[in-house]
Amino acid sequence: MAVKVIIPTPLRAYAGKRDSAEFKAATVGEALGHLTTQFSELRKHLFTDDGKLRSFVNVYVNDEDIRYLAKENTPTKDGDTISIIPSIAGGCR
Amino acid sequence: MATKVQPLTNSPNAATLSNEEILRYSRHLIMPEVGMDGQLKLKNAKVLLIGTGGLGAPLGLYLAAAGVGRLGLVDFDVVDFTNLQRQVTFGSSDVGKSKTEAARARLSNLNPDIEIESYETKLTSENALELFKDFDIIVDGTDNFPTRYLVNDACILLGKPNVYGSIFRFEGQATVFGMPDGPCYRCLYPEPPPPGLVPSCAEGGVLGVLPGIVGSIQAMETIKLILGRGENLIGRLLLFDALAMRFRELKLRKNPDCPVCGNHRTITKLIDYYEFCGVRGEEAPGPNVQVPEITPRELKSRLDHGDDLFILDVREPHEYQICNLKGHLIPLGELPRRVHELDSSREIIAHCRSGKRSAEAVDFLRKAGFLKILNLKGGILAWSDEVDPSVPKY
Asked: Is residue B250 part of a domain?
């Protein structure tokens, strides 16, 4: 169950400059857990101190927002893509 | 899940096109998707551009070229030399001029037949509703979170579409918020990121042509909304990765619990968006990190005196290549795990480009027990201004 996690530009600095990473994971939560274990600096950008996904970060499995699926329990299968979409505001100055 | 929309303007109030207009827009008129009807819709449309910068440049140019009858331009900024890398409405001779006036001159030259209104003002909760009410479509080309939430909320309260675009370095997003059954910005992002987490273009940099692409997409969506043609980005978040040259699309759903556009609305008027976003710094005056400082002149004087000072540079390696004070380079993000490279018995002067990142570094190090540490006020930019003008500014 290898899923690909796409790392957005603002977070690449905390993920060794990588733009994606692959993990075996059965759920979104598992994949993000692997991601923040491998890149521990990412944790505070994605999660609050009590382990909740930060509200200005959206997570999608393929093209669906996990808030409308099963959130972190959303199941993932081989070949799925998890996208992390943080808000960006540049327009720009 | 793309939605076809009804055109926004009703029967056109301008009933005809002059011969000159027919010639000017001939490439529109010969397409059945536009035709005389469509061009008249454009002529009668009123579009307000929030921001005349990187996104506003292609927006203004293409909407003017297309014959949008009334364009409003909102921006309080002046043209800066560093803008010319991407804000293609402006030229070198415009540096120092008001952006709205420079844009108006350029756009009027492109299309003298349209009305262009410039609002050289900061968009605030006090003026937004009044400004927006006479326009049909609002296009968000701003560059900061408080304004994006303000534009969103004002559009929902007034029932106006909000054509959204944003960029960061080499990635862009575009969508259309504010349509009756569609999502709004808060459906996507109920809360803003804490300040300082997402760098601005000045801090993160941007490929100049990127806002050109995203702003052009916004112009395209605006024109389609006016014409009532094609499928719009309502409920679709278009993501663009310029380096990979890849477009992706994600579904955006209307959040039934959205406080501003949902079924139980709790936000029924505009709020204090700076407070909402917790912004400090140039947008809303407030304390930055307070740390002990040294001015460039004082530093120069102490160095000339032969004082044993350790210069710590917390910028990025590519900035060090542009110019440096021969400091020891530890980028701010790496400081926590490289703090062992520093000797707390020595006096440390921390600097960055403008003094903000180094203030954070000093704050961090003081909390880690480094007591002999000062922040170079104004950074290497101030060093160039006050001590050594041969050091390039960037």
From this structure: yes
